[in-house]
Amino acid sequence: MSYTSFASVYDELTQNVDYKKRAEYIASILADFDIRDGLLLDLACGTGSLSVEFSKMGFEVIGTDASPDMLMEAREKAMENGENILFLCQKMQETDLYGTVRAIVCSLDSINHLSNADEMRKTFQVLKNFIDDGGIMIFDVNTIYKHQEVLGNNTFIYDEKNVYCVWQNSLYPDGVTVGINLDFFVKNEDDSYNRFTESFKEIAFSDEEITDAVESAGFKVVKRYREFSCGQPKEDTQRAYYVIRRDYNG
Q1: What local confidence, expressed as pLDDT, does residue 2 receive?
Q2: 228: left (phi over 0), alpha (psi -120 to 50) or beta
Q3: Given 3-state DSSP classes, what are the helix, strand and coil percentages for the chain, each rounded to the nearest 5?
Q4: Distance, CA of 200 to CA of 181 (rounded, Å)
Q5: 98-108, pLDDT tens digit by residue?
Q6: In what order do the strands lie in the sheet with 155-159?
Q7: What is the pLDDT of residues 68-110, one digit of tens each?
Q8: Measured on CA atoms in the order 47, 8, 155, 181, is the torsion positive or negative?
Q9: pTM value?
Q10: Which residues contact 243 (CB under 8 A, 6 or more apart)?
């Protein structure tokens, strides 16, 4: 998935995402492990909204994403906010930094965009090379419950000022993969509309698959949370957070 056309309307369609609240939540978890500053990798950073929030908190932020168009939006956003952030165009499973970081953050179900459990495992194996011993990674995932009961075979409509979006989902027979088709109608200055489409899929991994991928790469799962909570995920949790640590000298 490239998000080539999506990048220009992404922020308008995600106005309901409270990035400041999300960044503060993640930062509070990092603080529990005595990480309040230093190098932080915002993996699959998109248009950089979280990157900017972390930079404002005093972290030295590196943002990576596979989409040049998303990164263009991110760079402009960082400049507008006066934040000095290094953005790199990389797939998360091909991460290649100049050294190690204290923390890695991967938010808003980016892990679900990996094509299978093997690719997830390889991604964690790559990331292990670029995080300090004892370093913390925090990532979230859409759960199997959300894929089956919320996203499923449903259609969602977004009617914003400059863009109209029809989001159509199709649940695969495996019960964990959702095919997503987005039809965008973007308003022009003369009130006409341009239409474009993005299609991709998301996979919901089980806790066992995620834990196996994490541990086989030399990390350890130290916490599991429900979104914006300190409580454990439940059966009807839609987004789960994982806190993992690189084993010392692992």
Answers
A1: 44
A2: left
A3: 30, 35, 35
A4: 7
A5: 999 999 999 99
A6: 155-159, 163-171, 177-187, 193-203
A7: 989 999 999 999 999 999 999 999 999 999 999 999 999 999 9
A8: negative
A9: 0.92
A10: 29, 33, 136, 137, 138, 221, 222, 223, 224, 225
